[in-house]
Specification:
By secondary structure, this protein is mainly β. It is 7% helix and 36% strand. It has a domain of 155 residues: Beta-galactosidase, Chain A, domain 5. The strands form 9 sheets. Strands 13-14-15-16-31-25-24-19-22 form a 9-stranded antiparallel β-sheet, with no helix packed on it. It has a 5-stranded antiparallel β-sheet with strand order 21-20-23-26-29. The protein has a 4-stranded antiparallel β-sheet with strand order 4-5-6-7, with no helix packed on it.
């Protein structure tokens, strides 16, 4: 992957522009100039979104990543609630950490990297225990999207995923709009069309820590997921094909539960994932008026609600984050379980599980999906 930092390899005009941008930091302490680069021949940048309440979100078009989200805590102090890096070089160097990334063409796992569509077999990259995870190593998290800022509160990202990329059929045109709303929500709108039958499962892989305490874990966060059932997996995290009740298990998150209370219970599903890393079958049934999930930090008083029209939600508790820690924004070291992810989605391995909601997209159809991460404080 070729990376060219503009201030190092651009012309005088580019240097001057970079130096001008360096003079303005975002509320989260980011320098936009640290995201001005060129990756695989396409320019990268940082797009700053601000709302009428003083909140701020920053997005880079490399990997379509949500880099920072500044929202008020119970005392009105603006707090960054997502993990990430403060320069484009680190994102490119460590793409599979997936901080804030757009994920596709198929989020989550496909068993053995194989599936059939209309009688034809397709082989995808096998980048996770012999399976395909998040579209493979060159998924949408590791490409440069075309970007244009629509207004002060929204940015549009587009990407043409070519026929045959990662072994998948069809030229897929993808559009994603990030919007920071005036009620302190990150509204993500996904849209895609194809010229051949294909499969699509798009999501966002933001890592959330609501505490406002740099370098802390999320085991003290409380979580609620609006789901009576979940998708059990095997030892390699591929769904068994069953859908099981959460009743009487550590997977029952229908009421607010402290993440750390049962994450290390001697329960087979938690052993397989090293903690929570599963798809819950949402009760919301595509409705956007009822929260699919809720997370609360009593330290900061920040509350995050998730709304989506997707049928599933992957709750990942940062179990595979490095024990040694990862140096992120402003030099903060992120520990194991230093954040959690709530990835709205269709179910893992759906192309091989006809009993699951279909992820097929035909040429005469448009894929549309909505996810909203809404922030408030404990009342």
């Amino acid at each position: 992957m070729a990376l060219c930092v503009m201030c190092a390899c651009g012309g005088k005009g580019e240097k001057a522009e970079s130096q001008t941008k360096e003079e303005t930091k975002t509320l989260s302490g980011l320098k936009p100039s640290d995201f001005v680069s060129e990756v695989d021949g396409k320019p990268t940048a940082l797009y700053v979104l601000k709302n009428s309440q003083g909140a701020e979100a920053c997005v880079t078009n490399w990997g379509g990543r949500l880099v920072s989200v500044m929202v008020p805590d119970r005392d009105g102090k603006l707090t960054d609630v997502v993990l990430g890096y403060d320069n484009i070089q680190q994102y490119v160097q460590f793409p599979d950490n997936n901080y804030g990334a757009l994920i596709g063409r198929y989020g989550n796992r496909i068993a053995n990297g194989q599936f059939q569509l209309d009688g034809q077999s397709y082989q995808l990259p096998q980048n996770n225990n012999g399976h395909c995870l998040h579209g493979g190593p060159k998924g949408y998290h590791a490409v440069t999207w075309d970007a244009r800022q629509l207004d002060g509160q929204s940015v549009e990202l587009t990407y043409l995923s070519p026929d045959g990329a990662a072994g998948l059929p069809g030229n897929l045109k993808v559009k994603v709009i990030y919007r920071l709303t005036d009620d302190n929500a990150i509204d993500i709108q996904y849209e895609a069309t194809t010229d051949k039958p294909t499969i699509v499962n798009l999501t966002n892989h933001s890592y959330f820590n609501l505490s406002g305490v740099p370098g802390s874990t999320i085991t003290d966060h409380k979580i609620q997921i609006n789901a009576d059932t979940y998708v059990p997996v095997d030892e390699t995290l591929i769904p068994t094909g069953k859908i099981e009740t959460v009743e009487g298990t550590p997977m029952d998150l229908r009421q607010l539960v402290t993440v750390g209370d049962h994450i290390d219970d001697d329960f087979a599903q938690l052993r397989y994932g090293g903690g929570y890393d599963h798809n819950w079958v949402l009760n919301t049934k595509g409705g956007l008026n009822t929260p699919a999930a809720k997370v609360v930090s009593e330290k900061s008083g920040i509350v995050m609600e998730v709304f989506t029209n997707e049928p599933g939600l992957q709750f990942y508790a940062g179990n595979s984050m490095s024990e040694a820690g990862d140096k992120g924004k402003l030099g903060v070291v992120y520990p194991r379980r230093g954040a959690l992810c709530l990835e709205t989605q269709h179910f893992p391995d759906s192309p091989n599980k006809p009993e699951y909601p279909s992820t097929r997209l035909n040429p005469d159809e448009t894929f549309r999906s909505t996810t909203v991460y809404k922030f408030s404080v404990i009342k």
